[in-house]
Amino acid sequence: MAGEVWYVFVMSGQNAQKTAPADQKVTPMMAQYIEIKTANPDSLLFYRMGDFYELFFEDAEIASQSLGITLTKRGKHQGDDIPMCGVPVHAADDYLQKLIAKGHRVSVCEQTEDPAEAKKRGSKSVVRRDVVRLVTPGTLTEERLLDAGTNNYLMALTRLKGGSLSGDAVFGLAWIDMSTGSFQLSETDQQRLAADLAQVSPRELILADSLLQESDLRLVAEQSGGSLSPVPRAFFDSSTASDRLAHYFGVKTLDGFGTFSRAELSAAAGILSYIERTQLGERPPLDPPMREAGAGRMLIDPATRANLELARTLSGERQGSLLATIDRTVTGGGSRLLASRLAGPLVNVDAIHHRHDSVAFFLTNEIKREGLRQTLKGAPDMARALSRIALNRGGPRDILSVAQGLAAARAVLDQTRNGDIPAEIAAARASLEQAPHELGTQLVAAIKEEPPLLKRDGGFVATGYNSDLDELRSLRDESRKVIAKLQAEYSEELGLRSLKIKHNNVLGWFIEAPTAQTEKLTADPARFIHRQTMAGAMRFTTTELADLESKIASAGERALAIELEIFDQLGQAIIETGDAIKAAAHGLSILDVSAALAKLAQEENYSRPVIDDSRAFEIKGGRHPVVELALRKTGGESFVANDANLGPDASEEIGHIWLITGPNMAGKSTFLRQNALIAVLAQMGSFVPALEAHIGVVDRLFSRVGAADDLARGRSTFMVEMVETAAILNQAGDRSLVILDEIGRGTATFDGLSIAWATIEHLHEVNKSRALFATHYHELTALSAKLDRLSNATVSVKEWNGDVIFLHEIVPGAADRSYGIQVAKLAGLPAMVVERSKQVLGQLEEQDRRSPAESLIDELPLFANITTKPPGGAADPAKPNPVSEALTELAPDDMTPREALEALYQLKTLQAGGDG
Ligand SMILES: Nc1ncnc2c1ncn2[C@@H]1O[C@H](COP(=O)(O)OP(=O)(O)OP(=O)(O)O)[C@@H](O)[C@H]1O
């Protein structure tokens, strides 16, 4: 059997042309390897051999290339060398990290018995081995494999066809951070799906392999950025999902956790099946699933998220993103919470107010804040340590982390005690109060201050914690002294100054004396038992020495056994109070985030925004936090603050659109983005970089800024631009905020201008969103005469000696020109080209004066008139349509089936006549 299996495996490699004879000789170890490899086909197999994990065949080739380690060979198979490479067990984490980062999955196969046991079964028997864990990007828990400030989400996506009331498909989402135990569920639709995936930004996305076959869904899944793990459809079986969930959490019914939709349950079942498969028996300590109402968050689609550089810059780095600019947290948990708040700003006014209250509290209570931050700086990542302990991957340092985390929780309670405490802070404090503080005190007493990483060798329990352990340790540690004393006694008794007691691994402890002086020892063979004769020396032992030796050895062993038992007891006590520990860890994160945002507000002069359910969007003295910081760092000019007001006038209920024209490099894009960022910051619960801000909650944020090629997906710059614009025009509503920067730029002038024109009309008439629209098409400014909620704004510049000076000030009105040529001159375009451009421009402007674009305004009907026509432009509304006239005449209730059929034929004839 093993031979056949082997054959299948090798067929996927270079040796495909070779066939394996039925009587193929496979060494027992190789047979075992092949069996295990076949059972774990989609991953690289780390096969434990002594102090190394070895990889063979294709796995070895892939790993050696990915890790830059030497490819060697071990034995032959079917006449060919077997490629092999290996990584030392003690450094395995680093190699795992590299492989996982490159998108691989790794099965870790351990020896599950002592080699001595295997030998008992016969000299040729192989040590039993088994895969103990499948390491995938979304199931990591090791500190070294994780980024402290980033959640590591595993996400499951499932679809129920016709799951909604309207019969459309609904999607269930479940996501888990195994390193902290958080577990969330939500339901969404096709339109929101990409935005919801982007909000979570999973490291690994699991979905039924059948879904991955659909190209649209595959695209959305790929866009999430997570590594894709297809699994069988059966993982998501929604009919058994409730039972599987209840079973996992050891409850009879899920009622206590809340109500979940079928799609959510199906996603939850999928993710739990995957965890069971990858963790092989270990159960990560998960929180009960929480329902994340998708509608409770501002919708930000992936393109907008990327354009606004919320968590990463367009080039993929954290540095330079909004998140990096505002992050003043001092703990890993705080940093993760801040990132998830930024990824999903709220839309509930009360919830936003609560967060602002917390920031305000720490802004006024500076001493409390700084004391708190000082304490938190030393607090380790309790949530992640807890997870490792529960997964049986914990070490002494994880226990110490919990101990120190609980100590920090106690200190923080004292530091935030008095004063008028806002609701969110009070709730966080309550969770700290309920933490298992007695256990904390016990842990502090139990673990040394700087324990070793692994529990394996002991040495982590503090002195004074367990008296038996202390005794055994001193026996072991005192051994040298006891031996030295014995040596002194023997040498005195025998009068032999050169007698020594030594130790080696073969003999253990022994007495050694120069051969010439061993007379007295050999004379008493019953006492001095001869062990070995060397050149010039002889070795002996005594019952006394042997007794001492076994005492020392067993003291070490017994000490280790006691330490491991203590470790298990403490671990168990931690797991039992896991929920309270996790709640306290979350409480600390909330305090960290609130204090950090207050610190930010103070340092950067942010102010508290007014948030309500209106359609207001009034920003006074707004700034772009990232550009402002960049300018400050370069020490050049300072950032010019600007106002924006897109709110409705007193008599209206719908927001406004600003059309911004202005020279290149003046600051249009910066202005657009800063307003979007201010909305995001306000609704995530932060203060904002402005003197004042009044924002009626934004439910969806859309931004189309700049143009980026997406050639990897076969879309041109212009196609990307149009796909994103289409998404905006199809989805934005009157509570949305839309930022459009130079729409139409990617095509010929007239096409671009026409698209921009129609887009503005659509936003104004149909979407009715608050919007900022930057453009170089000056012709568009004429639209403000026709569209009453459209105003023109421009960025002011000064011209001086033919050069242009940017003032970066947004003022009402339209730009008279682009100053493109002046900017080109600044950029160092050759003087000849600059001059020639001026000439060409002069001629073009002359032509334009003869047929100005303003006339378009009167010639073209308003956009609204067009939308009232049926799609396809079938009929002229001025001419009566015979089909609709006939339809109006019909009275279905008064007709027999036969008459109805005849009427249908008649209608068809009429239509045919009309088409002709
Ligand atoms: N309000 C401001 N205060 C100070 N400097 C600013 C301000 N806004 C923008 N700048 C500076 O001007 C540069 C250009 O800004 P931005 O890219 O927003 O211009 P733009 O008008 O969109 O240009 P283009 O039309 O060429 O795309 C920025 O990188 C920044 O250094």
Automatic annotation (TrEMBL):
Q: Which spans of this chain does the record mark as coiled coil?
A: none
The alphabetical list of record keywords is: ATP-binding, DNA damage, DNA repair, DNA-binding, Nucleotide-binding
Gene Ontology cellular-component terms for this entry are:
cytosol
Does the entry feature the keyword Protein biosynthesis, yes or no? no
Keyword Protease (UniProt): no
**Matching Pfam families, A to Z?**
MutS_I (PF01624), MutS_II (PF05188), MutS_III (PF05192), MutS_IV (PF05190), MutS_V (PF00488)
Q: Which GO terms describe its biological process?
A: mismatch repair
Highest taxon of the lineage: Bacteria
What range(s) does the DNA mismatch repair proteins mutS family domain occupy?
Answer: 736-752
Specify which residues bind ATP according to the UniProt entry for this protein.
G662, P663, N664, M665, A666, G667, K668, S669
Q: Which GO terms describe its molecular function?
A: ATP binding; ATP-dependent DNA damage sensor activity; damaged DNA binding; mismatched DNA binding
What functional role does this protein have?
A: This protein is involved in the repair of mismatches in DNA. It is possible that it carries out the mismatch recognition step. This protein has a weak ATPase activity.
The entry's family comment says: Belongs to the DNA mismatch repair MutS family.
The name this protein goes by in its record = DNA mismatch repair protein MutS
Q: Which organism is it from?
A: Roseibium album
Gene behind the chain: mutS
